[in-house]
Amino acid sequence: MFTFVAMENLVIEKTLKTPGVLFDYSKGFLLIEGISIPEDTVEFYKPVMDWLIQYKEHPRPSTTLALKLEYFNTSTSVILLNIFKVFGQVENSELRIDWYYEEDDVEMEEVGEDYQNIVKTPFNMIPVESF
């Protein structure tokens, strides 16, 4: 028997240096978008990691992690890998990662392909005209 456990959504407003985060529990839709160059990357992403760890205990039947990042720094790239690892540990949910990149941004496309080769979760490369 399925027991519904309501989790609070995680909402972090986008700034010039930090991405917007919208983790919608009821839809199983997790979105990170914008630019990620926070002063303290670990501190900024702590609520994201905490939410994901809690989500692993009560996932939705289907979960999508969507990344629409225009730019991010090296410390964010390490955190993203950690997010992908925790996300990949979610059980009893159909998982998918959607990596959006501007179609003329070859570097961001290659970074997405690198992540795709590292993680075991199904990974979709999605070119867009612009963000």
Which H/E pattern describes the elements? Answer: EEEHEHEHE
Number of strands: 6
Number of helices: 3
The secondary structure category is alpha/beta
Helix content: 25-40%
Low-confidence stretches: none
Percent in strands: 25-35%
The figure for the number of domains is 1
Q: What's the arrangement of strands in the largest beta sheet?
A: 1-2-3-4-5-6
As a whole number of angstroms, the C-alpha radius of gyration is 14 Å
Mean pLDDT: 93
What kind of sheet is the major sheet? Answer: 6 strands, mixed
Question: How far do the termini sit from each other?
Answer: 42 Å
Shape: globular
Could you characterize what this model shows?
The chain has 131 residues and is an alpha/beta fold. It has one domain (10-102, 116-128). It is built from three helices and six strands, in the order βββαβαβαβ. It has helices at residues 41-57, 74-88, 106-118, and strands at 10-12, 20-24, 29-36, 62-72, 94-102, 123-128. Strand 5 (94-102), helix 3 and strand 6 form a beta-alpha-beta unit. Helix 1 (41-57) runs parallel beside helix 2. The protein starts with 9 loop residues before the first strand and ends with a strand. The model has no long low-confidence stretch (mean pLDDT 93).
